[in-house]
Amino acid sequence: MLIYLFIGLAIGLGAGYLVRRSLAKRYAESAEARAQKILEDARNKQKDFLIKAKDKAISILDEAKKEEADRRKEISSHQKRLEKRESLFDQKLLDFEDKKQILMDKAEKLEKTKEEIIKIKDEQLEKLEKIAKMTKEEAQKVLLDNTEKDVKEELLSRVHKVEKATQEEVDTKAKEMLTLAIQRCVSSHAAETTSSSVSLPSDEMKGRIIGREGRNIKTLENLLGVEIVVDDTPETILVSAFSPIRRQVAKLTLEKLIVDGRIHPGRIEETIENVKKELALEIKKAGEDAAYKVGVAGLDPKLLQILGRLKYRTSYGQNVLQHSIETAQVAVLLAEELGANVALVKKGGLLHDIGKAVDHEVEGTHPEIGYNILKKYGMPEELAIIARDHHEDEPVSLEAVIVKVADAVSASRLGARKDTYENYIQRLTELEDTAKSFEGVDKAYAIQAGREIRVFVESEKIDDWNAKKLARDVANKIESELKYPGEIKVNVIRETRVIEYAR
Questions:
Q1: Which of 28, 36, 117, 351 has its CA 20 to 30 A from that of 276?
Q2: Are 340 and 376 in contact (CB under 8 A)?
């Protein structure tokens, strides 16, 4: 019985071994197949990757060749331009040498002619001395003695008249002379009003400022509110805007970006914010410098900040901050002569146009805005009135009259203000058309840069009395309908011409 049990156990073990061996063989064959499949997939992916890499490499090579061709074309263009300029320069140099030689020849001839003239003059002088039997000095003495005898009586009479003049008349004449001297001695400080130029290290920087598909220049124009003009001008771009502050922010931003070299929208926004902070400090310093130059102390820091903004404000091309400083200086001189409050006039002259700093942001005229600003920052009423009345016909105080006169002196003198060509022509045309609109006017010409209008009338239609009335009517119409700096002289000319022929 045990034998059968052992035999069955042995047969079971043998059968189990055979079954296990068969299962192990099948599992090994299955794992090998999976590994083979994984290897095949890897080979296929490797082939695809190599194909894509080759395509990308070919694309990069094509793009590089295209860029190289463009650069070669640009270099060739620059080379041709340089060769052309060099040729022109050589030609101009030759012309200059020729002109130099001609001038040297003329100078030599002039020197010879001068020597001949001096020789002839000496000979004639010798002949005259022999004929007159006296030297040149003796002749001069005789002439002066005779002249002194002739005019001595007249000179004594004039001295007597001067001594009889009253002290009041002398003072009046002195003040008139002082006013003329002030108008003649002030200097011009007109400024550009619409555009600023930015220098570039090279023309390649223009492409970086424009950016891919123009994204950099669009970001700059949108954030700054200006127009950036990129043209064929070498190593230069223009920033155009009617706001001088915006134009200055744009110029400083571009200069910082060019130096930094990183030009992209994110960096542009960061640079603009930094420039605005720097410009705010510069504006405040400009206000402080203006107050120091005039000699005004104790102004509110915020008021100085507003005053500094006038550095970037122009009126007919005249810088308003410099105009305010000049007005204060002229007003002080007049106040000292007239015995007015010098300290009040000094502050009034400096702050009379303070309203122009914010007149584009606040409704109202700049005198009204200036009055409100000065009252807001605790300035006295008499000072605020100066800012309010400096364009009025009848200011309420002597100090306001002085500031008004000083403002007119600074603004109306020749060279102080300028305008664009189109506006200048339009203003002169309107002035002439206004004069021609009256009946009896034959011709009208605007002269002296629009500060005088000469009106020629028909003598048979306009008599002397009506000519005076016409001058007043033309002046009134110009005052009511036109805008202009300073004052305009209306000169009505009436003449009679009689023509006859002798045959």
A1: 351
A2: no
pLDDT band for position 335 (cuts 50, 70, 90): confident
Answer whether residue 334 shows pLDDT above 90.
no
Same domain, 445 and 481: yes
Q: Annotate 67-97 with DSSP letters as a single string.
A: HHHHHHHHHHHHHHHHHHHHHHHHHHHHHHH
Is there a domain that residue 182 lies in?
A: no
473 in the same domain as 434: yes
User: What pLDDT does 438 receive?
Assistant: 92
In a domain, 501, yes or no: no
Q: Is 177 domain-assigned?
A: no
The residue out of 80, 103, 129 marking a domain boundary is: 129
Who's near 444: CB < 8 A, 6+ residues apart? 432, 435, 436, 453, 454, 455, 456
Percent helix, strand and coil across the chain, each to the nearest 5 = 70, 5, 20
**C-alpha span between 355 and 369 (Å, rounded):** 5
Phi, psi of 239 (to 5 degrees): -115, 120
> Which CATH number fits the domain that encloses residue 244?
3.30.1370.10
Residue for token pair 């007159």: 132
Q: What is the CATH number of the domain that holds 357?
A: 1.10.3210.10
pLDDT digits (tens, 9 = 90+) for 386-408: 888 887 777 888 888 888 888 88
Mean pLDDT score across all residues of the chain = 80
Question: Tokens 């744009």 map to which residue?
Answer: 250
* Consecutive H or E run containing 491: strand 489-493
The token duo for 213 is: 């598909």
The pairing of beta strand 452-457 with beta strand 489-493: parallel
Q: What is the pLDDT of residue 136?
A: 67
Residues 357, 433 within the same domain: no
5 assigned to some structural domain: no
The CA-based angle 132-135-141, given to 5 degrees, is: 100
Among the listed residues 343, 313, 314, 349, the one whose alpha carbon sits nearest the alpha carbon of residue 329: 349
Q: Is 25 helix (H, G, I), strand (E, B) or coil?
A: helix
- Could you tell me the residue range of the domain that residue 22 belongs to? 11-129
Q: Where does the pLDDT of residue 185 fall: very low under 50, low under 70, confident under 90, or very high at 90 and above?
A: very low
State the burial class of residue 245 (Cβ atoms within 10 Å of its Cβ: 0-12, 13-18, 19+).
middle
Domain boundary (374, 394, 412) is at: 412
For residues 483-500, average pLDDT = 78
In the structure, what pLDDT confidence band is assigned to residue 225 with cuts at 50, 70 and 90? confident
Long-range contacts of 120-125 (CB under 8 A, 24+ apart): none
For the stretch 12-64, pLDDT in tens is 777 777 777 777 777 666 777 777 888 888 888 888 888 888 888 888 888 88
Domain identity same for 17 and 99 = yes
